[in-house]
Amino acid sequence: GAVVSQHPSWVICKSGTSVKIECRSLDFQATTMFWYRQFPKQSLMLMATSNEGSKATYEQGVEKDKFLINHASLTLSTLTVTSAHPEDSSFYICSARDKAAKFLHEQFFGPGTRLTVL
Amino acid sequence: DQQVKQNSPSLSVQEGRISILNCDYTNSMFDYFLWYKKYPAEGPTFLISISSIKDKNEDGRFTVFLNKSAKHLSLHIVPSQPGDSAVYFCAASGVTTSGTYKYIFGTGTRLKVLA
Q: Tens of pLDDT along A42-97?
């Protein structure tokens, strides 16, 4: 149980285009999902926290108009990188917190999406 | 400003011996600490956690120690097995001004257990 999927796993796009990444909790309901970004040999950097049915909370320095997050249902959150540029190339990873989890801090991670912007 | 640091990027240990992974933090307001394990091409998976009010938590072969005065925690794996070879991340949890939790991750330590 507690599986989180991400789609696509790898995407290459041209500069200026928009890319949508999906994060799904497959066997549980997720009231909260987190979006992280990881550069090579660096830590997972929290970009934003999204709660189902409400606006995402973005971390300082993350442009909300560039990284659009939608958490429309208890099993799906999407991250759209708008007008992508080469510096947006990174590994994007989501995690989800089970609505029914007994342990507050447990989050289940997706396998990540590697974005390469040419 | 890296609030959670894992200063050893890699560690090699012989099978059967103890693996000790270290993590330092700077923010005394963190109230929970977690360790995650990550295999290539997979997302991190939760391993073990410790509340800031405790100094030790044990789960099978895994034990996490917390030294609040030194702002240091460590993960001990005994005995180490080849299947433990992975990247280990420590993470710290803190409450935001809006009352939600957020998580700060270290850069990870790559553990290699040699058979």
A: 888 999 998 887 888 999 899 999 999 988 889 999 999 999 999 999 999 999 98
Best B6, B59, B89, B107 residue to mutate vs chain A (most A CBs within 10 Å): B107
Q: In this structure, are residues A99 and A35 in contact, taking their beta carbons and an 8 Å threshold?
A: no
Q: Count of CB atoms within 10 A of residue B37's CB?
A: 20
Measured in angstroms, the CA of B105 and the nearest CA of chain A are apart by 6
CB proximity list for B15: less than 8 A, separation 6 or greater: B79, B80, B81, B82, B113, B114, B115
Whole-angstrom CA distances from B52 to A37, B89, B94 are 26, 18, 11
Tens of pLDDT, residue by residue over B24-82, are 999 888 999 999 999 988 889 999 999 999 999 999 999 999 999 999 999 999 999 99
Using a CB-CB distance cutoff of 8 angstroms, which residues of chain A are in contact with residue B96?
57
